[in-house]
Amino acid sequence: MLGKFQRHKIMEIIAISKSIKISPRKVRLVADVIRKQEIAQALNSLSLIEKRSSGAIYKTLKSALANALNNAKKKQEDLFIKRIEVSEGATLKRYRYSTKGRTHPFRRGSSDIKIVLEEKNYGTKS
User: Fold this and answer.
1) Which residues are bridge partners to 92 per DSSP?
2) Of 35, 75, 84, 125, which residue is most buried, by most CB within 10 angstroms?
3) End-to-end CA distance of the chain
4) 13-119 in CATH: which number?
5) pLDDT digit string (tens) for 12-53?
6) CA distances from 36 to 30, 95, 118 (A)
């Protein structure tokens, strides 16, 4: 029993992909395009973008959509992308072989992608 003014917990649907073998800077270029879009429009945009990271974001968005439909029993039309976070994953240290027996180190980056979905009309009276 919550009393006179009942508090509703905001339902956020989350999907996370970790250790995507693309640098975060390149993934953020695609993530900025679909931020704050509806699901159908974002999926259409991702299928048209010719970047390697669009495939990883597409799969993560489909996973978030499946979580919303199956676990939270939401409709696709009522959802939009509330937040996309692209953070750095583990970096692998690699070496490029150079002249005179030397090596030049470089880091190969990876990304963690987190997509949060929310209902469009949450909190409004219908």
Assistant:
1) 108
2) 84
3) 24
4) 3.90.470.10
5) 899 999 999 999 999 999 999 999 899 999 999 999 999 999
6) 13, 40, 10
